[in-house]
Structures
1.
Amino acid sequence: MSDQQELPRATVEETLEDLDAHLEALNWNALVSDKETRRLEQQLTQFAGVALTIVTREPVPPATTPSYPVSYQLETLAWVVGPAPDPTLAAAAGLLERVLYQAARYYLAANLHLEVVHRDYAALLAKHQALQSSEARYRDLSAELAKQVEAQVQQIEDRQRRMYAAEKLNAVGRLGAGVAHEINNPIGFIRSNLNSSREYIETFQQLRQRLEGLPGGEALVKELDLDWLLGDFSQLTEESLEGAERIGAIVAALRRFAGTDDQGPQQLAINPLLEGVWAVAAPRLGAQLEVTWQLQDKLPPLTLERAAISQVFYNLLENAAQSAPRTVQVTISTALASRVAESSSEIAGENAGESRAQGAEKQEPGLWVEIRDNGDGMTADTLTHLFDPFFTTKPVGSGTGLGLTVCRDTLLAMGGDIQASSAPGKGTRMRVWLPLPAPIGVTD
């Protein structure tokens, strides 16, 4: 066993004690086979010159043939029987005792080796099983570590996307604030001047009335066409004032959209917010979209970040405008409803196809905002990857592939949800779920 690991001394001693006890219980037949016994009888007969036999039971009277005991470790195991003198029988018994001694040594060595090998194998098997168990624990630990690393990477990527969206919103906010500041001042001058013009028109109206009372005044009024001139001037002034008011409203909507007037979550009415987003989007997307409104009245306010949620709906309107190379019909609807949220983060639907990102599984009150278009629609494969970062169907360089990813991350951060269903040639339906704020004093 030079190439095997040595067994502990106590184990070897126990093995020897077991074998020694086993040897004490052995008999002639266990140490010498029947064939070997017959051969020994032949050799003893040749040695003694008379027929000698080996028996394992002590001869008892009335047996008259002489016999002599064969002992091993002070115990008689057999007898030599034959018509020979005692010295001859004693010599034959001595030879058989040496045979027994050698047979016992061989038995001891063979069984000791076998026992040691068995015990060594048992110890090796136990170590192998322990190694397998340790390896299994290591694999489980490695798999768990890989999951944790993957989760950390996903969390870092999510935070990077949110930082990207936040920087984008900040840039839009700074731009909106700058544009609003630059536009508000001249718009203020224009409004003031147009209001002055309105007062001047009233003065000119009075002048015209007095002019008609003077000799030749009526003819002069007709010659100069003052009635048409004053009426048209009044209409132009009112239209200009209306245009200035519209510019002011757009600037205000831009400021609200960019979030420069408020910070953090606040109570918002969803219907006016959607109308404000469209007011900002209309100058750019109005040629591609025809919008129909189906807004439910008296919806409860939601706790939202104005800039972030406005960016979500702007992105969805922009996607609708790009859904077909023609004018797209878009229906924007709102409705109060409850839902059972599911545990998956993104699910591809069946039949027409559906992809969604969802929050925790529970029944919760809220409302849906649906933006449905009659564009060209999307395939099931596109829906499967719709919310994947950097996935885009636009030509290279035309889009980052982060628009819907940012929408999903923004809504999930608010406790919301987004779903998309579509089919080629059947348009697309985007549904945004927004939770109602919990009643005061109620927590999850």
2.
Amino acid sequence: MTDKTIGDRDVVSEFAAVIESWHDFYMLAGSAAFTLLGLLFVAVSLNIDLIAAPRNSEDLTVFSLQTLMNFLSILLIALVFMIPEQSEYGTGIPLLFIGLLEMWRTVGLWRRFGFKGKEQRLLKRDQFQSRLLIPNTICYAALIMISAELLHGDTGLLDWMTMVVIWLLIDGSLGAWTLMLRLGEIGQNTKAER
């Protein structure tokens, strides 16, 4: 074995050790995201007639789908960190992919829902922005930046992943709560109209 090979292996082992040190955090975050994802499925299933109504509730459909995608993103991020003996590319590439995909989705949502429009919405614009668009933009931009650093073998920004994961968990929970309150309100109004 050459000195370069031994040195490269030491760098990979050091990187893997740093990633491994986050094991418990990502185990807990992934478990929380999976649990919340299941609860969101139940809530959506119980109100599918309101969420899947054609054209009347496009914002509710998109809001619930993006909340689901945020929980899935946390779950995928947690899975990336749970892989043993991770390398820079094994960590950085999947995280970069998740960040870019979700940022692309968020930009599309900004274009559809973030600016003034004349169409009627079931969710208030400020709810949509504060509960979904702004947190997604910040979290996924941070994820892209962190993953780019990880691709270069720099683990200095890993502490910022806690902000990304915790904010997405909190925001997803608050978003699900907002969704449930709004669905309950719509359901009550529908019953009153009958």
